[in-house]
């Protein structure tokens, strides 16, 4: 039986992308058999009724499942942080990175609005941060939708996977989506000059093909609380610490007050930026303060 990927769910229909074709499917069989509600992003096995219509028979196992937007099998998050307006904040960036990594989603850092950088000093600061995060192992791209800068460097990263945009409001997520996929802008331009909060009222999310990849048309990660992360797991969400932790004296080292800690040594000799470690410590405190949930 043919296999497809749900790219849109609307009014009881699931639109399954199978190669070049989109098949409009009903989900009857699945509700009966798997007792699962299909999600956008799901890989499914379906049955043809005719050229353009079918029935979903089975939802294949999910790799992960986001709540907002509701999408399954998200591979990566494009984490958009503006260089200015709002100002670049490493503590907020690190918070997003932890949340994304803890969902086993690969983050890509996109520093947006580079055209608004005012002087050399500001530019050097932003570039230094970009270098820091690259050294930690992250992909970093700098973009300006206003000057169409950096878009060509971002595009190839979207191929062959499901991506979702994330980041604070006002950083330029919608603007980037519009540049990557002009049809989307056309579709929404009759509602408003540009996509933004409120207008694109999202009862449903849609995956839009960009290159050979799929991108969610609705940005995600609204909750920024560390609800499902434990103290001992936190350092696994910091790739530069993850890499060092097997050199710590203690196997379960949390890199706080243990002796012979490779992470602390790396912070002391500048291999790991001090601000990253400080954020790590403050996140640890935050997780410890969390009331136990029964
Ligand atoms: P979102 O809330 O993250 O989706 O942000 P928007 O895409 O709605 O953008 C917020 C504001 O920033 C809008 O006024 C955009 O025109 C502006 N903006 C977005 N990208 C850029 C950029 O690259 N350069 C400049 N100067 N402004 C931008
Ligand atoms: Zn350690």
N-to-C span: 44 Å
Q: Trace the largest sheet across and list its strands.
A: 10-9-8-11-13-12
Percent range for β-strand residues: 15-25%
> What is the CATH superfamily label of the largest domain?
P-loop containing nucleotide triphosphate hydrolases
Q: What kind of sheet is the major sheet? A: 6 strands, mixed
Structural class: alpha/beta
- Rg measurement, Å: 21 Å
CATH fold group of the largest domain: Rossmann fold
Q: Can you name the CATH architecture of the largest domain?
A: 3-Layer(aba) Sandwich
> What is the ordering of alpha helices and beta strands?
EEEHEEEEEHEHEHEHHEEHHHH
Summary keywords:
294 residues, alpha/beta, OB fold (Dihydrolipoamide Acetyltransferase, E2P), Rossmann fold, 3 domains, five-stranded mixed beta barrel, 30% helix, globular, binds guanosine-5'-diphosphate, binds zinc ion, P-loop_NTPase, rRNA-binding, GTP binding, G_CP_dom
Structure description:
With 294 residues, the chain is an alpha/beta fold. It has 3 domains: 3-61, Nucleic acid-binding proteins (OB fold (Dihydrolipoamide Acetyltransferase, E2P)), CATH 2.40.50; 66-216, P-loop containing nucleotide triphosphate hydrolases (Rossmann fold, 3-Layer(aba) Sandwich), CATH 3.40.50; 231-289, Orthogonal Bundle (Ribonucleotide Reductase Protein R1, domain 1). 30% of the residues lie in helices and 23% in strands. It contains 10 helices and 13 strands. The protein has helices spanning 28-33, 90-102, 120-136, 151-154, 173-180, 182-188, 231-234, 239-244, 262-268, 274-289; strands at residues 3-10, 13-18, 21-26, 43-48, 53-59, 65-66, 71-72, 76-82, 106-112, 139-142, 162-166, 207-210, 213-216. A 6-stranded mixed beta sheet has the order 10-9-8-11-13-12, sandwiched between helices. Strand 8, helix 2 (90-102) and strand 9 form a beta-alpha-beta unit. Helix 2 crosses helix 10 (274-289) and helix 5 packs across helix 6 (182-188). The protein is globular. 36% of the residues are buried. Residues 188-202 have low confidence and may be disordered. Bound molecules: guanosine-5'-diphosphate and zinc ion. The site of zinc ion has 8 residues, from helix 9. It holds the Pfam family RsgA_GTPase. This is Small ribosomal subunit biogenesis GTPase RsgA. GTP binds at residues 112-115, 167-175. Its cofactor is Zn(2+). One of its GO terms (cellular component) is cytoplasm.
């Amino acid at each position: 039986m043919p296999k497809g990927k749900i790219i849109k769910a609307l009014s009881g229909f699931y639109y399954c992308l199978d190669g070049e074709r989109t098949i409009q499917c009903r989900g009857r069989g699945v509700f009966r058999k798997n007792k699962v509600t299909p999600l956008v992003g799901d890989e499914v096995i379906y049955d043809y009724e005719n050229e353009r219509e079918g029935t979903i028979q089975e939802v294949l196992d999910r790799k992960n499942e986001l709540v907002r937007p509701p999408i399954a099998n998200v591979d990566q998050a494009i984490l958009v942080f503006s260089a200015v307006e709002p100002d670049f904040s490493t503590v907020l960036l690190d918070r997003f990175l932890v949340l994304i990594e803890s969902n086993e989603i690969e983050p890509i850092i996109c520093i947006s609005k580079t055209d608004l950088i005012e002087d050399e000093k500001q530019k050097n600061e932003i570039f230094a941060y970009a270098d820091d995060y690259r050294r930690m192992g992250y992909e970093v791209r700098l973009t300006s939708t206003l000057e169409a800068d950096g878009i060509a460097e971002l595009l190839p990263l979207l191929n062959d996977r499901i991506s979702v945009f994330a980041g604070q409001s006002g950083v330029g997520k919608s603007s980037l989506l519009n540049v990557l996929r002009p049809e989307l802008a056309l579709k929404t331009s009759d509602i408003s000059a540009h996509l933004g909060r409120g207008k694109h009222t999202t009862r449903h999310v849609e995956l839009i093909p960009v290159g050979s990849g799929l991108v969610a048309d609705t940005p995600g990660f609204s909750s920024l609380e560390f609800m499902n992360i434990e103290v001992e797991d936190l350092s696994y969400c910091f790739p530069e610490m993850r890499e060092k932790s097997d050199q710590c004296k203690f196997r379960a080292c949390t890199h706080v007050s243990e002796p012979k800690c490779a992470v602390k040594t790396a912070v002391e000799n500048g291999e790991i930026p001090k601000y990253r470690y400080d954020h790590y410590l403050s996140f640890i405190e935050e997780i410890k303060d969390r009331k136990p949930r029964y």
